[in-house]
Every structure is written in C-alpha cells, then in structure tokens.
Amino acid sequence: MVIQSVDRIESKARLHSAKRSLPSGTPPLVRWSRMNSPLGQLFVAVSPQGLCAVAFGEKENEFLSRLSRKAKFEKNDNATAKVLAQLREYFSGRSSSFDLPLDLSSLTPFQREVLTVTRKIPAGKTWTYRQVAQEMGRPNSARPVGQALARNPIPIVIPCHRVIASDGSLRGYSGGSGLKAKRWLLRHEGAL
Which residue from 55, 65, 75, 121 has the highest number of Cβ atoms inside 10 Å of its Cβ? Predict the structure, then answer.
C-alpha cells in the first residue's frame, strides 16, 4: 500500500468532503456491500465522492437506515471492490494503511478536522484525545474530540480506535462490540 503524505490526505479529505451538485430532485446513489471479517459481518458504502460508511456489529437494515435518507441504495460488490480488498489486506495483516477517496460531506468542519488528524496516527501507536486536540491547535477540546470520534462514519479506515484516554484506558468505542472491538483492533496492530 502507498503511504500518502498528510497534506495529500488532508487535501483529498477536503476535496471529497465538498458536496457535489446534483440535478434538482436526483437522489445520490450510494452503493453498498458486505464482507465477513474477524469482527463479524462488516458493511461498507460508497457515494460518488468516495467511501462514506463502514459498520460492523449490526444488521443490514440498521446499517442502511443510518445512511442518508435522501440517497438511493444499490447493493453492488463491484463498486465496493477496492474498499473490500483493502479491508481484507488489513485484516490479513498484510497492510495497515488505506488509500481510498473518502466522502465526509455529512460531517461538520470540526468533525472532519478531527478525523483528518486521526488519520495521522500510525498503526501500532495510540494517541490520547488530548493529543488529537493539541495537534488541531485546540488543546482544551479533548471532550469534543471524543464526541467527534464517536460519530466517525468510517471506523477502521479512519482509525478512531487508536485514540485512548490520558490515563491509558481505552475509554469508549462506538464500533461493533464496543471496547471488545477496539481492543481487538489495537492488538491486531500491535499497540496492545
């Protein structure tokens, strides 16, 4: 896998965060599929701008109900093939980075900034919520950082599991089986 510079990642995130204009009345097409993973059934969804959702530990109807109500959905393994291939590489231990366009257009600018900084955390390492806030130039924003990470629509690819509490505890994780999944991901990457 190619490791991208942080500036390139940030500019890609900005590019894919911008909403594209669609003809009036045309719902965006979101293509989705699923795969088996060590964390259970994993769902992914891509919009025309890029990967917009990853979820595990929930049922198909729960996953689809969380996506934009304005979108048109299509189960399409071909459209998600690159995402699934990179996730398989990750779970097999052959890669720990992702090179995918992302669609973060449903998030606030602050949430996008938190997730962009979180992508800088290398596999096998952890940062605290405070470190993420400091990297953003907002040292007193550890709590809002945690709230933004809890809304990460693309866990694993955007590694919010690498963010822990200042006392070294794992604190929380909204993906799959919660702290059990966070612990598994950190062990898989050699951080625990």
Answer: 55
Domain 6-92 class in CATH: alpha beta
Tell me the C-alpha distance between 31 and 65, whole Å. Answer: 14
According to DSSP, the β-strands at 29-37 and 72-75 are: parallel
Can you read off the two tokens belonging to residue 4?
A: 């991208």
Residues contacting 190, CB < 8 A, separation 6+? 123, 124
Q: How do residues 83-120 score in pLDDT, each as one tens digit? A: 999 999 999 999 988 999 999 999 999 999 999 999 99
3-class secondary structure per residue, the chain: CCCCCHHHHHHHHHHHHCCCCCCCCCCCEEEEEEEEECCEEEEEEEECCEEEEEEECCCHHHHHHHCCCCCEEEECCCCCHHHHHHHHHHHHCCCCCCCCCECCCCCCHHHHHHHHHHCCCCCCCCEEHHHHHHHCCCCCCHHHHHHHHHCCCCECCECHHHEECCCCCCCCCCCCCCHHHHHHHHHHCCCC
Give the pTM: 0.84
Question: Which sequence spans correspond to the domains of the chain?
Answer: 6-92, 109-188
Residue 45 is encoded by which pair of tokens?
Answer: 């969804």
* CATH architecture type of domain 109-188: Orthogonal Bundle (1.10)
